[in-house]
Fold this sequence. Notes:
Blueprint lengths: L2 H5 L16 E7 L2 H17 L3 E6 L5 H11 L10 E5 H5 L6 H17 L5 E5 L6 H18 L4 E8 L5 H9 L3 E5 L10 H36 L8 H22 L10 E4 H17 L4 E5 L5 E4 L1 H17 L6 E9 L2 E7 L7 H4 L16 H12 L3 E7 L2 E9 L6 H8 L2
Parallel strand pairs: 1-5, 1-6, 2-3, 2-4, 4-5, 8-10
Antiparallel strand pairs: 7-9, 10-11, 11-13, 12-13
Amino acid sequence: MDQELVENLRKVGIPYINDIPWGTHICSFFGSKSDLLGIVVPYFKAGLENNEFCIWVVSEPLDVSQAREALEDAIPDFPSYAEQVELYDHRDWYHISELDADRIVQAWITKLKAAISNGYEGIRVCGSTVWTDFRSWKKHLDYEAKVENIIGSLQTIALCPFQLEKCGLPELLGLAQIHDFTFISCKDPYSYLNSMVNIDRLELIGKMAASVAHEIRNPMTSVKGFIQLLQGDKDLQRYSSYFMLMIDELERANDIITEYLSIAKPRVRNVENHNLNEILTTMLLLLQADARKEDKDVILVTGDTADILVDPREIRQVILNLVRNGLDSMPSGGVVEIRTSMQNNEIVLEVEDSGHGIPEEIQVHLGKPFVTTKEHGTGLGMYVTYNILKSYQANINIRSSNEGTRFIIRFPSAEGGNSDYICRYKSG
């Protein structure tokens, strides 16, 4: 990498984003006011501490006084930066009714020149306008495109935050395309996850993952191959632990890509009568091999069961997700037990672990995307699991305590189940 570029990388302040060069145009989507503050306040704190002139164009759900108060609360010596930061109401800065992209871009350039002449290294800005109809949305998109075209040559970093509940699929696509990169910050997604617009968002995430997975996985595979090649060099044996760590991180990244791909457009189902015991028996050795790598185990106890009308690939995915979650929750020596039985003409599958349990506040939201108890989890595995089970009209119950968690899943039998469900899949 060019030495000058390395030396001029800027601290972003947002924990999960690495240092970035001047001229970066960032788009973020947030859920609540606290989510917005969690992005913008550390973003500006980093700018102030690194001799950048900061400009916050404040819009809903905050006003200027609330924004200033948030900065004062988070930055103990904020008064010493009084001359280094400016806050504007978005209506005053953008003149919403007559949004003039050329005028606003020129205003940013004027601010940049003034900042540099006053000894600052550049400007750090945050701002987003709002739109009320297609016409104002088109103006906003034109403005963002102009910023994207010019910002690359300027000593400027721009963050554009947008509220998720005000964005549909067209807005998400449009905004993502005219920024250098985009991320979502939403600590409490539950209030909007049931809306149709959110379904569009999830489909969008899956489609975006599918479109870039090949491009990401190819270089990852190359990097992994070279690392494994270096591992075989006797002169580099002292770096063996580093190589293993790098390979583990690449594999974790690949697992995350796989989870995002799982919410892309569903594949064609091959639904037929299958026996759950047979599906489990074919998987047992794989599950036990996974478990024994960490000194854990998986046991299977089967009872007589009728057939269920399913695509076996999807049921294997469900079992794999539940068992691996159970294994992740347990210390060494833990056991995941899988049981099957027949109860009231229903096929019952139980997956029970001896882990730390699932908090009640998480239990009620299981099956919604991005809900997870894992430090590095995405929450998409359980989202996919629940969607598969609901599509087969399976009933899901959870019993959890600090001694472990038991998932109880009840499938309708192929012979005595819901006739509408059976006919729907048999008819294709």
